[in-house]
Amino acid sequence: MENKKKLLFWGELPPTVYHGISISNERILSALSTGFIIHTIEDKGSFGGRLIALFSFFISILKLMYVSYRKFDIYYTNMPMSYFGLWKIYLSIVCVKLISSNTKVVSHLHRGDFLDFIKIPRNKYLFKKISTHIDLVLSLSKTSKSELVSSGLINADKVEVLHNTISVTQSENTIRKNILNDFSQSDFYCLCNYISTKRIHHLVEIANAIPLVRMSFNGAAESDSYMQKLSALNTGAVCHFNGVINGEEKEVALSQSKALVLPSLNEGMPLVVLESLAQSTPVICYDVGYIGDYVGSDYPGLVKELTDKALKEKIEWMNNLPSEEYLALRKHSFDLFWNNFDLNKINCSALNMFKHLV
Questions:
Q1: Right CATH number for 5-165+342-357 from 3.30.428.10, 3.20.20.70, 3.40.50.300, 3.40.50.2000?
Q2: Which GO MF term does the entry hold, naming one (predicted)?
């Protein structure tokens, strides 16, 4: 019987933190558990202010150093695109390697703003410094890998592409049977936390300006004041704001929507895009980050011009799409996911990448 190697993970995980990166962390760790003995230490530094974050990080460092005496084969963590976040990762790697020098380091870059990040000299210097301690960087797409390598800050043999994917409760065949259901008169839908940087307020203004018959939202609120702002902008009562939704309930909401709309201009590869495509529900979003790599640069729902006007025009186009063309787009969306981002294939790729290191 093959002896399992040992893997140490530090990062955010559900249900403590619930967003695309934490969900991806959980899925990948589950896939790796078939080949590794896994020890996880949660990063809880995103709660509270800077002092609480620093204290939480200090506790994490103590835990990492303590468990590192077990001599893990791999240390796996994420690669944040913030100066403070990257310092945390750098220090965590140094501490782990101080105790266990032979441990391989894998860092996962989920963001799509790497080139913007390294435009700042101190960020570029820190990334170059940290890259010397890393054995493998996982990137979201070929474009992401190309950006990393062309920066000259990390060697090409240290970068691999691991596509995002998602778990789906219903089978491919079950969803396939619903492709030809005509949801052209259903609600437009936005599944995104109510955060100002996600530009939800812009979408509320657009939905009321068109005006749409109805647009539904689900997500966690940034603050009461932001929700009050959204309500004030909802002059035609077009938008309906609801709370967090997960699991099968989320899949049902996506599957019964006319289209998913994302107004954010700052994305890497949001999992909700894949979640929507898996249900055969078309997506309208800006061509930012690596979304174009996943759906194809010619995907009809991609908004090329990064303006509110262009987003509004794309929603209006979808709203007036003839039934036959809309159903064809549903089938195209379904095929995009199931032909390219099958969960089992991508999980197998992840396991092979990690095993290859040790």
A1: 3.40.50.2000
A2: glycosyltransferase activity
